[in-house]
Design goal:
Blueprint: E1 2-4, H1 6-13, E2 17-22, E3 25-30, E4 36-41, H2 48-51, H3 54-67, E5 71-72, E6 74-81, E7 86-92, E8 97-98, H4 99-123, E9 126-128, E10 136-138, E11 144-146, E12 152-154, H5 161-171, H6 175-184, H7 186-197, H8 201-212
Parallel strand pairs: 1-6, 5-11
Antiparallel strand pairs: 2-3, 3-4, 4-7, 6-7, 8-10, 9-12, 10-11
Helix pairs in contact: 4-6, 4-7, 5-8
Length: 222
């Protein structure tokens, strides 16, 4: 991880477009050459983010996802901005539009494919705490990729039932995504997921009971 002076960082983003910001300042830039710069704020003096920076977690997650055959961004470098309590990751973005935006055109077909993709993530041992429809990209060829990946976690084998259920709760956190799932059909989405997961009948029944308890939109599955 490279440490740079604040003046060098400012020069890098001088002509960049701010894509996201909060009350603490910019969070994501797009540079003139199309690269993305994502900032991570170090919130406390004594923080695990100083020992294992989120920029490095992002980079490691990208490496692990690619090793498991899952498309994601290409990390160029990780930076620590001296004197700013900020780390940054510089990456090349994935081509395509977010799942949230893409389903406006053809929700039925895309959500069928996405439910199967979500099952494949779990089969490959990927647990994505930031799993919402703005963090999945629908690529030009129809495949899916993941972004904002610093909170992706990995197991050696397929996710256990508890991890799968928690990840479904994350899908329901944002109102636009809940509305899309309900319009598509909650039971239909879950059944397509379960068929792709190839879980046995007893595990399917346990999954339905468990996921029905984590958010009201899944209540009809129990």
């Amino acid at each position: 991880m490279k440490t740079i002076e604040a003046i060098e960082f400012d020069a890098r983003v001088r002509d960049a477009e701010i894509l996201s910001e909060d009350r603490f300042g910019p969070k994501v830039y797009r540079t003139a050459d199309g690269r993305m710069i994502k900032l991570f704020r170090i919130k406390r003096l004594f923080s695990t983010a100083r020992l294992i920076p989120y920029a490095r977690r992002f980079e490691r997650a990208a490496e692990e996802l690619k090793a498991r055959g899952i498309h994601t961004v290409e990390v160029v470098e990780c930076l620590r901005v001296k004197g700013r309590a900020r780390d940054a990751v510089v990456y090349r973005p994935v081509l395509g539009g977010t799942l949230r935006d893409s389903i406006a055109g053809n929700a039925d077909e895309i959500l069928i494919r996405f439910s199967k993709f979500f099952a494949s993530l779990h089969a490959l041992g990927v647990y994505f705490r930031a799993a919402h429809f703005a963090n999945f990209i629908v690529e030009p060829g129809g495949g899916f990729a993941m972004i904002d990946i610093s909170e992706a976690h990995f197991s050696r084998g397929a996710l256990r039932l508890a991890g799968r259920v928690r990840n479904f709760r994350h899908l329901a956190r944002h109102e636009p995504d809940r509305a899309s799932l309900e319009a598509f059909g909650i039971a239909r989405f879950c059944e397509t997921y379960l068929e792709a997961s190839r879980l046995d009948d007893a595990t399917r029944a346990r999954f339905k009971r468990a996921v029905a308890a984590v958010h009201p939109i899944f209540g009809g599955l129990s």
